[in-house]
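=== RUN LOG ===
request id: a7f3
mode: sequence -> structure
chains: 1
length: 357
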Amino acid sequence: MIKKLSMLCLIVVGVFIISVKSALADIINIKTDAPQTYVVKKGDTLWDISNLFLDQPWLWPELWRNNTQIENPHLIYPGNVLRLRYVDGQPVMEIVRDKTSILLTPESVTNTKPSAIGVLPWKVLGPYFKNDSIIGPEEYDALPRLLGDSEGSTTFVKKDFVLSHKPLNADTHYTIIRKGKLLKDDEGKVIGYQVKNVGEVQLMNSSSGKQQIVRVVKSNREARPGDKLRPVESADNHDLVLQASTTQMGRIIANIEDRSLIGKRDVVVISLGAAEVEPGTVMGIYARGPAILDNENPSYEVSQSPVKTLFSASERVEQPAFKIGELIIFKTFDNASYAWITRADKHMKGGEYLGQP
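=== RESULT ===
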């Protein structure tokens, strides 16, 4: 516990220094190589465009504070021409040309805008957003499960009829989920199971006591006996708004794909849940080196045996935390969240600390 508090204190000090520097700067930091104008293209993301102009991309809305052309700075469209200018020494972003497409119909001619660009690359993150989630062990165990079919099959796909435990609500649509890795925090506390969306089922009219016939109506992969049924969750990523974290502190738990190394553009599980963070929250990633035993021949504590360290007269030196990257949270659960690594100065292994960006 003392070690953990020490780490948090180091991060707090680092974040405080960063905050003071930001306050003293009094203006948004525009990149030296930022373009004066930029034409928004199909396939762009708000994060990509923000990165072109700002050292701190999550401050994008600040560039629109003196601009009345647009109500929501997160709604930018392909064809918009963005221009950076300065008002009283402060940078301001404006739209100098709003390109629309013309839709011809037999009845009329109308101007239509294409869809607004996404904040994040949803083509990449969409599968994780829709098909992956985290659920507590007790909640998972209580869900109804698939049992088998009349053919004695061990796998089920779209259009198959399967016997399952009877769900509580016959009017609800159900997703088939499969249990994966059991996630734990740095203190060994269970966070929940990482589960995959296998498909969806439709409840049929016929049921027998505690059992229910269901029909597989969607298959992301083959379902199996023992897979669970959970009410379909809504997946809405349209309201994602970038915002810097403030006092929240957490840890990276693991790479969602269970790879040993974590880098830029990877999706990770973090230890903060829906009560602590929101989708769109940007956080800094911090790490520190191993403790050092300070004597005539300094050495790293991890290289010494526990007994030798215990009786050593060397002074133990804790290395300061330093920032090694950033991430954006895009989906939250009760005890954890999914986040996308947007910057990584080095490879990570999990366990890194999270604080203000």
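=== NOTES ===
The first helix runs from residue 2 to 25.
The two ends are 24 Å apart (CA to CA).
=== END ===
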